[in-house]
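Hi U.,

Before I forget, here's the chain from the pilot set. I'm dumping it here mostly so it's searchable later in email.
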Amino acid sequence: MDKLSSDCPYPGCFFCVMKEGNPNKRRTSLLKFFRELPSQDDDGQVLPISGLWNTAMAHPNDPEFIELGIFECMAALIWKGLKNRRWLSHDQNVYIPYYAAHIIGSYTMNMEEFAQMAVHAGVIPPLIELLRGRLTWVEQRVAVRALGHLATYASTFPAISSHGEILELSMQLAMSSLEIVYTDFYQYVDRRLSYHCDLLTRGMGGVEMESRKAEEWASQLQCWSLQLINCFAFKPEFITTICKQEFLIKLPGMWGGLVNENSPAGIGLLRTICHLKAGRGPVASCTGVIDSLCNIARSSDDWQYMAIDCLLWLLQDPATCHKVNQRVVPTLMDLVEITTLGDRKKLGDSIMDTLEELIESSQNLISNGVKEEVEELISSRKRLKWEKTMPKEDLHIKHAAALVVKLEGNSLFSSGDIAGAASKYSEALALCPMRSKKERVVLYSNRAQCHLLLQQPLAAVSDATRALSLHNLINRHARSLWRRAQAYDILGLAKESLLDAIMFINEFSQSNDPDLSLRQNKVPVYAERLVKKQMRAAWLFREAAAKHGGVQCEGDGYGQDSDDSEWETASESEIGKGDDHQHDDEEDEEEEEEDVEDFERKARRSKASNRDMRRRHGYNSREES
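Structure:
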């Protein structure tokens, strides 16, 4: 060990210091290293910084470097890169500000004590300069990450909020981050900075890997900006700044994409805003935001419960109730039979209580139509209580009567009388005992299919959502997922359609077959097509690409301009899975386990008649380009 140190050509080398066996000598040497590093101009400085970066990532709670001045050192290095462009362009120094900001963020991620020391060390001003974009979007990403961690703690938030520009800069970055990354990196392969490519792929990937990582980092840049804004949103004094209409209307579209599914992103910030009375007024005034919340609440989004929370708070507030009830009440009525969603127990009961309170306390604030719908729902709940006292024989009679009517609906559907079939399914729902959830799931799902063919996508979303809410596993009824995916496709809501289609494929692919290799063959081709279509439509850089032109590279995933006509729309695909076969609930469950060959054989058999039905009812088989 001593020999290695004596042979090292760099006096005070960080790696040699780390091998020092004497704790006191090691501590003294590290203290000197952190103090002197910012003033040195030697080559190879990026090596110890990258070593520190690795250590911070692996051991973010280790106090050793914190106590010896690493925060002061990193802040000084960022300032040096900002003020001395000649030094920054020398050797590999261009990497250093990125690593320095990343190190600050890693060490402040979990420990409030470390965050306090970072603030005292003066890290905020240089991080703000990176946030402004004084260097590039790559440094902005790690700067907003570090500032977000500092803003998380009660003891350090005042230091962040005292710099008023942080909130404004974060809001601007959240709105423009995707466009910045697209134009500055993604669009033109030959203009990509080499150090960006190295940081993205660690030198292990080509153009396609760089592009995919850039999409992931762009999503993180936006989501971390939203996380920082979210820290401000908990404080009423900042709500006015955050609730600018131009910002609010874009929040639902900031969803992180499939590459960053663990972040609540825009819906998470909206939930924080709606939790405060001062925030609910501006949100209620944005009809587009309300519509988006309703769509998310009736989707397979992991953050569905956040949208439901927002809608409930808006409806419970007398100051916003009259603005939103026409849109919100129908959505919540579709969700009233949810039992548990995540860790939220008896969510449907909470929704029902809110709707009943609305009728009792807001007689003059709601329309007669909304009032009648809620009263009808309340009556159906009373019917459930009444059925508990009925003799079993009477319940069996009601169930049998509903089954007869449903079979009549199936017959009408097969003969092409879609409107008649929908009416019969409605009649069967009125007869069917409330406790017969399995049968009601099928009836709602069948009626959703009728609405699709009648070109009534909103009604299809409503019925499919009711079926999914009733299902014994919430949001897991495959047919209803597929029908709602089609309905959202017709409505042009790519994200919601995509999430439902992916969930449908997951459910459809479940099999008891011991040969796992066969599972991939169970995914319907038409579902894959819809997923591909919606991935293009919901692509993270879609808006930026439309504004600035296509991607100038080869072989990239979703950035290439393409002819969407090759992808079948929901209405053109084999939507019914042989819908003439959808009868009682037992058959419904069995058919979901059929392999794709049987499925496609049935679909081909019914496809011609389905097309005739679409033409008969004016159902356009192609999406407008």
